[in-house]
Design a protein that fits this description.
By secondary structure, the protein is an alpha/beta fold. The chain has one domain (3-347): Aldolase class I (TIM Barrel), CATH 3.20.20. The protein has helices at residues 36-47, 79-91, 153-173, 187-192, 207-224, 247-260, 286-296, 309-317, 328-332, 336-343, 358-379, and strands at residues 8-10, 13-15, 19-21, 52-59, 71-72, 95-101, 134-135, 149-150, 177-182, 231-236, 264-268, 299-303, 323-326. The strands form three sheets. An eight-stranded parallel beta barrel has the order 3-4-6-9-10-11-12-13, surrounded by seven helices. A two-stranded antiparallel sheet has the order 1-2. It has a two-stranded parallel sheet with strand order 7-8. α6 (247-260) crosses α7 (286-296). The longest helix is centred in the last third of the chain and has 22 residues, at 358-379. The chain is globular, with a radius of gyration of 21 Å. The two termini are 36 Å apart. 48% of the residues are buried.
Length: 380
């Protein structure tokens, strides 16, 4: 069997294969509540054979959202559509996780297709006002962006409690896996990055100090999250900017997360303002997943420009990562996972659609039989 399609067990959760649908912001929630759009959006990947599916970055508080369209889990009403999504995804044999997030100084932003900049009096929609943002230091993310409040101990404790309250709701919704968002310039990564963090106290300066707050949030989550369920953490493995967070620091951070009981590091990159030195290419972040996996002795997930079944299989076969995550490629082809299984020769020879949902497999089998018959007749 191709390693990509081997089941993998993390704690007591068995995932049917090593493929993952990465958290992808759709900016289409209403008051933090997901809609039937999200049920169909995420359900398609379960029907398409993905092993693990993540619900998009979900704000732990209203001020933790990126935009007014973000998913939220800061009140009980937001649980109902999530329960429906969880139930459907599980009914199709997939595992489901949720990524909990706080946007920090990149919050109070427009949806991407509405400008993708900070909400101002000139561009705000009716009923969608701007809000106070927070960060490690009072440094705007970019020119003309909101100036965030430099967080004090009271602010930090509120964030820890917001993450905890959201995790409690996530557990009640039935999620198998919890992921803490610690990447892309959002709140927790703003503490790790020397570009964003200019503090002079115990939360700034050395790596030990810069790790202190995000590690405290991870500890609160891992202490609560059931011991039989895995916890992932998404990090920016590097800022990719001179003077920023480095891969060596990422390995040390992963070691500390492992000590707390974190199971998998989801290895992304970037998120701070400035021109990145990292060149985008197929699988360009895989080396980070490999270095963190072997340097910290922890499972990792590779993500970023992974588009081909053989490419994905090579990543796990070469022990560069334990999971392979797709985002835009999954949007482009929601059945990528079953097609990859066929491409790698893992589908049953006698019935290559037997792994598909029967509602699809039956008719696709008929289609194949008809096409084979027509092609044979054409040859004659």
């Amino acid at each position: 069997m191709s390693k990509l399609f081997e089941p993998i067990k993390v704690r007591e959760v068995e995932i049917r294969n090593r493929t993952v649908v990465s958290p992808m912001c759709m900016y289409s929630a209403e008051g933090g509540k997901l809609t039937d759009f999200h049920l169909v959006h995420l359900g398609r990947f379960a029907l398409g054979g993905a092993g693990l599916i993540f619900v998009e970055a979900t704000g732990v508080s209203p001020e933790g959202r990126i935009t007014h369209g973000d998913s939220g889990l800061y009140n009980d009403e937001q649980m109902e559509p999530l329960k429906k999504i969880v139930a459907f995804v599980k009914s199709q044999g997939a595992t489901i996780g949720i990524q909990l997030a706080h946007a920090g100084r990149k919050a109070s932003c427009q949806r991407p297709w509405e400008g993708d900049g900070p909400i101002t009096k000139d561009n705000m929609k009716a009923g969608e006002e701007a809000w106070q943002t927070y960060s490690s230091s009072a440094i705007p993310w970019g020119e003309n962006w909101h100036t965030p409040k430099e967080m004090d101990e009271k602010d930090m404790e509120k964030v820890r409690q917001d993450f905890l309250a959201a995790a409690k709701r996530a557990l009640a919704c039935g999620f198998d896996i919890l992921e803490m968002h610690n990447a892309h310039g959002y709140l927790l990564q703003s503490f790790l990055s020397p570009i964003a963090n200019h503090r002079k106290d115990q939360y700034g300066g050395s790596l030990e100090n810069r790790m202190r707050f995000p590690l405290s949030v991870a500890k609160v989550l891992r202490d609560f999250w059931p011991q039989d369920k895995p916890m992932f953490v998404r990090i920016s493995s590097v800022d990719g900017i001179e003077g920023g967070f480095t891969i060596e620091e990422a390995v040390e951070y992963a070691k500390e997360l492992k000590k707390l009981g974190v199971d998998v590091i989801d290895c992304s990159s970037g998120g701070q303002p400035g021109k990145m030195q990292l060149r985008t290419a197929l699988g360009y972040q895989v080396p980070f997943a490999r270095e963190i996996k072997h340097g910290a002795g922890i499972k990792t997930m590779a993500v970023g420009m992974i588009v081909d079944a053989h490419q994905a299989n090579e990543i796990v076969t070469s022990d560069s990562a334990d999971f392979v995550a797709l985002a835009r490629e999954a949007l482009n082809s929601p059945d990528w996972f079953f097609h990859a299984e066929q491409e790698l020769g893992q589908a049953p020879q006698e019935d290559p659609y037997s792994d598909w949902p029967p509602q699809y497999g039956f008719w696709l089998g008929k289609r194949k039989h008809t096409l084979d018959r027509l092609n044979a007749a054409a040859v004659k």
